[in-house]
Amino acid sequence: MPKEQSFLKKLYYLPKVFLQYALKAFNWLLLRLFLIGCFIFSFLVLYFYLIIPEISELLDGRDRGSVEITDLNGVNFASRGRQFSNDLTPLNIPKLIHDSIIAVEDKRFYSHLGVSPRGILSAIRINLKEGRSPFKGHGGSTITQQVSKLICLGKTENKNDLDCRRQTLGRKIIEIPFSFALELKFTKKEILSIYVNRVYLGGGANGFEAAAYRYFRKKSHTLNLSEAAMLSGLLTAPSKYSPLNRIDLARERGSIVLRLMKEQGYISESEYQSAISQPATLHPQAKTKVGEDFANWIIRNAPDILSNDTTEDIVINTTFDPKIQTVVEKAYKDILSNRLKADSNAQIAIVVMEKNGAVRAIVGGRELKESKNYFNRATQAKRQPGSAFKPFVYATALDLGYSPFSIANDRRLSVKVPGFKEYSPKNYNDEYIGSTTLITALSDSINTIAVEIGNSIGYGRIKDTARKLGIGSQISLNPSMSLGTSEVSLIELTSAYAGILNKGVSIKPFGLKELSLKGEGIPIIEHKVYLGNQAISEGASEALVYMLNQVIEKGTGVRAKIKDWGLAGKTGTTQNARDAWFLGFSSKYVVGVWMGKDDNTPLEGVTGGTLPAEIWRSIMLSLKPLHSKESQEMSLPVIVDTDEIKKGLEEVPKNSNLKDYENDSFFERIIKSFSN
């Protein structure tokens, strides 16, 4: 019996003994796991400590560079890529920026060792309460942990921005030893300096210095309280709260930052009330996109490795003139606002260049309510020029010896060319005036005569003239080519007109003057003004200038006329008024204007001689003060060198359809026209 009792007693205590041993084993295992965990954690901290680059390498964390585009005075007017400035160092972070960041992002920044368990648990609780997964939405990260993300946990190669920002349990765990390593490697001010230089604040701006300039055109040290609070408010969601899109949301977020600053003792009640009553206001240039079409043209034509795909910071100095751009935009907006219906989808494109090809302004289109304007109709679109192509027909004829005073017969015409259907051109109003001079034929834009001249002198010669003057688009050889049925871009047509002004010497339009690395004065690319070959003789070009002057003085371009100023130009209207053009020049500037619709439907009541001519005239009036005193008072004889006309065009054209007019010499007649 005692033996049975002893056995039962042992059996009774067996679970207790087993539990004691199990507990000891568990404690032993837990201790070792803890020690192993500490070892792994310490190893990771040491590893990260060793691989984290020096602070000088961490301030700029962009995976691509930026492009600054400056005007002809060297003033920045546009930028591409991610803007950055390393002006903020650990020793000079502005107090307002410092305080606003700490207040809104990490009020325990100076008391923790890189990680805030309370903050992480609070974020998980909020995420679950709002129906998200634990690590989606609020991150509960300290500034140190955010820096860990910004530098992609020390990864320096093959970085993927989305991967660096991905929020998972694994990344959260890895962030902990990495944040400890950051705290060991750098001071709190150094960690904060990495943050203020690398964090993205929308609008293409990385860092507070770049953002201060992007939104307020200020240095970060000159920001006021409401401006600093607005920038710090963008940290949560720079796209959502972007003041470029929703200034109301940005101000609302800024007011939250101001409240937190007041509650945490960074600002007084009076400072808070003052900042609330005077919210931050964007600089006028922050939202306006003066020169955006010009900038897009520059970027499209620059080498990708030095523009779109650059890993360096690039500065491109251009020919852009913001004053001219402003007057151009005002001119077309003032006229179209009064002349077009509110729901009109008519588009416009304008190019202004000097006679050497330096482009000063570009309008690529107007922004309509239903869509933003991302397509540059001045440089990318190709449309039929209509009668704006006729100067190349007459230039070819003049170069062959025809006279502006030669006689042609305006009549119903049918042209039969082998390989083509019979072509019967009609005049705009279907009226025909009979015998007339080439001057009248061009000034009144008579179609039949242009087609007959083209047929007489040869389509290949006309194409060659257009090519030499700068038309690079495909030109079809057919009877209708004289009426501008081959599509061209506005910028190439404008540059070809510049060649006419330039005494027949072709030019190439350019906007890029110099391209260099930021901070270095030696250009990588430097443009030199291109003067091409003599496309047509000087005499032919001077005579053509006179003929184009008559277009404005008494022809289809009379709405472009400016009293006591010798100007030259040509209208162009395509079939059913799908395109309306006016191109012309003074002694210094060449201006091209196009109107049409993107869907190629007809314009209503618009021809080249109406709205485009009026817009062209308004632009020229604004440009007149930019001419020298002599050129402002310039009469046509100064534009047209009569000696060159006499030298190149005194011969009577030998053509059965075109004959010399009267008996006076051509030179004497041109002089008479000047005195009338």
- Could you tell me how far the N terminus lies from the C terminus, measured between alpha carbons in angstroms? 150 Å
The CATH class of the largest domain is Alpha Beta
In total, the number of strands is 16
Rg calc: 37 Å
Beta fraction: 5-15%
Structural class: alpha+beta
Spans of at least 5 consecutive residues whose pLDDT stays below 50 are 637-676
Overall geometric form: elongated
Give the name of the CATH architecture of the largest domain.
3-Layer(aba) Sandwich
Strand arrangement across the biggest beta sheet: 2-1-5-11-12
Main beta-sheet strand count, sense and barrel state: 5 strands, mixed
Task: Spell out the blueprint of helices and strands.
Blueprint: H1 2-51, H2 55-58, E1 66-70, E2 76-81, E3 83-84, H3 95-105, H4 117-129, H5 143-150, H6 161-165, H7 169-185, H8 188-198, E4 205-206, H9 208-216, H10 225-233, H11 247-263, H12 269-277, H13 284-287, H14 292-301, E5 314-318, H15 322-339, E6 347-354, E7 359-363, H16 390-399, E8 407-410, E9 434-437, H17 438-443, H18 447-457, H19 459-469, H20 490-501, E10 505-507, E11 512-517, E12 525-526, E13 531-534, H21 538-554, E14 568-573, E15 579-585, E16 589-596, H22 611-623, H23 629-632, H24 636-639, H25 642-649, H26 666-675
Parallel strand pairs: 1-5, 3-4
Antiparallel strand pairs: 1-2, 5-11, 6-7, 6-16, 8-9, 10-13, 11-12, 14-15, 15-16
Helix pairs in contact: 1-7, 3-10, 3-11, 5-7, 5-8, 10-11, 11-12, 15-22, 16-18, 16-19, 16-21, 21-25, 25-26
